[in-house]
Amino acid sequence: MKKMGLCQTRLPGLQQKKEQLEKISGTCLFRRSAGWKKNCILEIRAGTGGDEASLFAGDLMRMYIKYCEGKGLEDALLSESEGTVGGIRRFR
Fold first, then answer.
1. Would you give per-residue pLDDT tens digits along the chain (92 residues)?
2. In this structure, which long-range contacts are made by residues 13-16, counting pairs with CB atoms below 8 Å and at least 24 apart in sequence?
3. Phi, psi of 20 (to 5 degrees)
4. Residue 90: φ, ψ to 5°
5. Cβ atoms of residues 42 and 64 within 8 Å
6. Where are the domains of the chain?
């Protein structure tokens, strides 16, 4: 008769528990009720780089706004600081 170590005897029970936890976590992560709604605040800063950084931040802001429009999500501009060449310095 082959001797089994402690790890080998516990392995089947642990595998079953792992499968149960995966099912529970999957339903928790992807469950959406009728009133499910999440809010998000996104802050974009130009950072270092001068005018090029502010232009990139402006492009990024417009990209996120277009994404929200395409998905049917609401967006609201909380504050904005314009850069010198048409970009933005901060968007929140």
1. 466 677 788 888 889 998 888 777 766 555 555 556 677 788 888 888 788 888 888 888 889 889 888 888 888 888 777 766 666 655 54
2. none
3. -65, -45
4. -155, 135
5. yes
6. 44-91
